[in-house]
Design brief:
The complex is a heterodimer.
Chain A lengths: L4 E4 L3 H13 L3 E7 L6 H5 L2 E6 L10 H11 L3 E3 L9 H9 L3 E2 L4 H8 L1 H10 L15 H11 L3 E5 L9 E3 L2 H19 L4 E5 L5 E10 L3 E13 L2 E7 L6 H17 L3 E11 L4 E8 L6 H8 L3 H9 L16 E8 L1 E2 L5 E2 L2 E2 L2 E3 L6 E5 L6 E2 L6 E9 L2 H14 L1 E3 L5 H7 L3 H4 L7 H8 L4
Parallel strand pairs in A: 1-2, 1-4, 2-3, 4-5
Antiparallel strand pairs in A: 6-7, 6-8, 9-10, 9-12, 10-11, 11-14, 12-13, 14-21, 15-16, 17-20, 18-22, 19-21
Helix pairs in contact in A: 4-5
Chain B lengths: L2 E5 L4 E4 L15 E2 L4 E7 L2 E6 L4 E6 L6 E2 L4 E6 L1
Antiparallel strand pairs in B: 1-8, 2-4, 2-7, 3-6, 4-5, 6-8
The chains are: A alpha+beta, B mainly beta.
Chain lengths: ~450, ~80
């Protein structure tokens, strides 16, 4: 027992974050890199580094064989997958364990079980965690839909069983529309996905995205309270807060306890997040899915709980017990994160690879910038556009918003365009300031906005 | 017969197919006209079409499918 050296099987800001956590724990770090990341900050910060392949991620960061042999050749004891890439690939977790190494995350079996939306939903049903009301599985004919529609009521969503990315989804407000649109949706699903299966779900108007952070040690689980991530562009989160200001404290306790129970019921190990749709008019929440990894927005939770989640997740995956009780996790103040992406908000969010000519990073109390940038760094075109995350903490939400305004003004990234200006514009919007947003708010807002 | 080239408008990864299970946009010997899509460039997880700015016949591809390319790098040799 006892991880002495950790291979970071990721890149960018999360690699930097993992290296920092490991360094604090006295663990030697080994950073893998593609040919495009030779000059990257995590390669500079790690104790050691290993070239694993060509720039395209399929030939480097997604290549299980290269990663495992890199870990074995250099004598790592453990592998951290970060987020994205192979973080939620059960086969990768299995391969790491089969090589005799510690995987910083849950078992491959847990990843697969929770990654499948149908099995995750039935696991939730077993313990009575509410999912969005709808058909238990696919609907084969219109007759079968009738009793379900009567039960859940209109409006409903018709979704493609094999779908994804919003394709094939229809909002239906009455029976006549349903009878007309369901066959259309099925035909479209057949064309798009080769599977005409559809299912129905209650449509929650102006739903908000609320999630709960958990860490398990395989025996017990603690929750680290909630976050709200309703500001999304094309289903990608760009702004996150902790706690969710739309959730009253009594509901928050129930939400977090139920999330904790769910993770306990699957014997969860590592850091994970349960995502929910939240109806702020009724204060009902509906389980969507569980992400079996550390998430981009974990720092807002670190700010309001004071716990280093990356360090904790390494500890528990190394076989240590959580070693603290739920009462010891106390929520304090409010935190906001703005994702700074290499995209031009004034030009359709066009990607902006290129060289950072100047960099000024904000500071002061309650301000944190998690990033892999340095002056002179060239952002490669091959990977995600996220450059970093500006995070603030303050005693309450209005103060945190104000602190974010000042921090964004101080942040200066020259050489490429970034989404800083988007966040500055959002901070001037009354709905954002009042927390009156939902998951399609930003796409609607952007269709009217004019960001310079 | 003069040789011309189609260059990449962006840095990124070059794909010859619209999706992995679909046939390539164009093969050697195919005719292209102005505005025809000859491939995709993936830059930071978003995909951009590479359109021909001239007409001709594809003589050869200068980069392989899924190769990393720079902005301005020639992708295709065209014959008139």
């Amino acid at each position: 027992m006892g991880i002495e050296s950790l291979l970071v099987a990721n890149r960018g800001e999360i690699a930097v974050r993992i290296i920092r956590a490991a360094r604090d724990m006295g663990i030697r770090t080994i950073q893998v890199y593609s040919e495009a990341d030779v000059d990257s900050l995590p390669v500079q910060l790690a104790d050691d580094s290993v070239l694993i392949g060509k720039p395209p991620s399929t030939k480097s960061y997604l290549n299980i064989e290269s990663l495992i042999s890199a870990a074995l050749d250099i004598g790592a004891d453990a592998v951290h997958p970060g987020y994205g890439f192979l973080a939620e690939n059960g086969d990768f977790a299995d391969a790491v364990e089969a090589a005799g190494l510690v995987f910083v995350g849950p078992s491959g079996e847990t990843i697969r079980r929770l990654g499948d939306k149908v099995t995750a939903r039935s696991s939730a049903d077993v313990i009575g965690l509410a999912t969005v009301p709808g058909s238990a599985g696919r609907i084969d004919n219109l007759e079968e839909a009738k009793p379900i529609l009567e039960e859940i009521g209109f409006p409903v969503l018709i979704k493609a069983a094999a779908g994804g990315g919003g394709r094939g989804i229809r909002v239906v407000c009455n029976q006549e529309e349903f009878d007309r649109l369901a066959p259309q949706a099925s035909t479209e699903a057949l064309t798009a996905f080769g599977d005409g299966g559809i299912y129905i779900e209650s449509y929650i108007h102006n739903a908000r995205h609320v999630e709960v952070q958990v860490i398990g040690d395989g025996e017990s689980v603690l929750h680290f309270y909630d976050r709200e991530c309703s500001l999304q562009r094309r289903r990608q989160k760009i702004w996150e807060e902790a706690p969710a200001s739309c959730v009253p404290d009594d509901v928050r306790m129930r939400l977090c306890d139920e999330a904790r129970n769910f993770a306990s019921s699957v014997g969860y190990r590592g850091a994970g997040t349960l995502e929910f749709l939240y109806d702020s008019s009724t204060h009902e929440f509906y389980f969507l899915e569980m992400n079996t990894r550390i998430q981009v927005e974990h720092p807002v939770t670190e700010c309001v709980t004071g716990v280093d989640l990356v360090r904790e997740s390494i500890r528990v995956c190394d076989g240590n017990s959580l070693g603290r009780s739920q009462d010891e996790i106390v929520l304090k103040g409010h935190s906001i994160e703005c994702r700074i992406n290499a995209e031009d908000p004034a030009n359709g969010f066009m990607p902006q690879p290129g060289t950072i000519t100047e960099l000024k990073v904000p500071g002061g109390p309650g301000v944190r910038f998690d990033s892999m940038l340095y002056p002179g760094y060239t952002v490669p075109p091959y990977y995600d556009s996220m450059l970093g995350k500006l995070i603030v903490w303050d005693e309450d939400r209005p103060s945190a918003l104000n602190r974010m305004r000042g921090a964004l003004d101080e942040l200066d990234i020259s050489g490429i365009k970034t989404t800083k200006s988007l966040h500055q514009a959002l901070l001037n919007d009354i709905n954002v300031v009042e927390g009156n947003v939902h998951t399609t708010f930003l796409d609607d807002w952007l269709s009217k906005a004019n960001i310079q | 017969m003069s040789n011309q080239q189609i260059v990449s408008p962006l840095p990124g990864i070059f794909y010859r197919r619209p999706a992995p299970d679909q046939p390539p946009f164009k093969e050697v010997g195919d005719a292209v006209s102005v505005g025809n899509v000859i491939g995709l460039i993936e830059v930071m997880k978003s995909f951009h079409e590479v359109k021909s700015d001239r007409a001709g016949t594809i003589a050869q591809f200068l980069v392989d499918n899924e190769d990393a390319v720079m902005a301005g790098q020639p992708l295709v040799d065209l014959n008139d």
